[in-house]
Amino acid sequence: MLGARTVTVNVENIGEARDYVENNFGSVFEKKIKAMKVGKKESIWDNSNILLNGTNIKLLNTINFKDGDKIDLLPRIAGG
Fold first, then answer.
1. Nearest Cα residue to 27 out of 35, 7, 58
2. CB–CB of 24/73 below 8 Å?
3. 47-75 confidence digits (pLDDT tens)
């Protein structure tokens, strides 16, 4: 959907991860959701379920990154 299945980056915290995603994939995502007329927000981050090592970040009390952590973005508009 966004032209990349896997991207490896070095970020220190969840804010840097969000900035990276929005800056590198946000415009492509925004165009797609506008064309599909879905999603109340046009942000890829706000329209995705975000998993840190398989756990939804909304369920975590604190978010601490360590080397090798994996973040998955599952856009809610993907259907299913």
1. 35
2. no
3. 788 899 999 998 999 998 999 999 888 87
